[in-house]
Amino acid sequence: MAGGEALLRLEDLSVGHAAQQPVLSGVDLELRAGEVVVLIGPNGCGKSTLLRTAAGLLPALSGGVQVEGAPLRSMSRRRLSRSLAFLPQAPLVPAGVSVRELVRHGRYAHRGAFARHTAEDVEAVEWALDASDAASLAERRIDELSGGERQRAWLATVLAQRTGIVLLDEPTTHLDLKHQFEVLDVVRRLAREHGIACGVVLHDLMQAAAYGDEVVLVSAGSVVAAGPPDEVLTPEAIAEAFGLDVHVFRDPETGGLACLPRSTAS
What is the pLDDT of residues 84-103, one digit of tens each? Predict the structure, then answer.
């Protein structure tokens, strides 16, 4: 699918922690409206660090980040929060708070800390609950939910910011397979139906192929390949990134990409 306007640009970006060698260097990447871009690669290769730098939570070591055409470094935290929402791997779960109360926190970027909720806030909260399939959970306590339900509630919270860019760091971690697909279905719908530019860190290659409009494969400090899934998820690229000899093929029923280690593919 052809995406829309580039809402997030990473330009010759190097990321890592101060006084240390970059974990990723020379990254050029665009997130476009209506597209899902999936970052994959071995553990420790810098996927989460890249996402946190793009979200303004870590300073870039070099290069730049453009958010809706503006340099990230020139944006206040509130201004950035109106353009870009970020969901970390393991957000803290506030005890005793209902899902609706949690989702309301997503509106803080649009009003003062002590301001009353406006009609626009109420509309944004209801939209976010519906878009994330969390409306039926609205009155339940967040600490009483299952893992999949809780992740949908957190998705609703970042959606309530009403941003054009949503970055999700391993949103399927610790979820069973059913809930993984439920969360990824929500992410794909956000892009397709609401025109949001979604950047997602995943570990599963086949989920990346199924849900990503573009896949960015990173390893050993750089981007190994980037582009449509069938161009990136090749035996050669997977071998380079993961050191794994695989057979890549198309599922005859779904037409989707699949892969098996060659030791089990024969």
Answer: 999 998 787 778 899 999 99
Residue 14, token pair as written in the block: 């190097």
| Measured distance CA(81)–CA(132) in Å, rounded | 19
State yes or no: pLDDT of 233 exceeds 80.
Answer: yes
Percent of the chain with pLDDT over 70: 95
Please give the Cα distance from 54 to 258 (Å, whole number): 30
User: What Å distances lie between residue 37 and 1, 12, 60, 95, 201, CA to CA?
Assistant: 12, 18, 20, 33, 9
Dig out the tokens for 55 from the structure.
């979200």
Per-chain mean pLDDT for the chain: 90
Q: Please give the domain boundaries of the chain with CATH numbers for all domains.
A: 1-83+163-229 (3.40.50.300), 94-162 (no CATH)
Q: Count CB-CB contacts under 10 A for residue 106.
A: 23
Model confidence at 1, pLDDT cuts 50, 70, 90, reads very low
What is the rounded CA–CA span in Å between residue 52 and residue 169? 9
Cα 18 from Cα 59, distance rounded (Å): 9
CA distance 150 to 88: 13
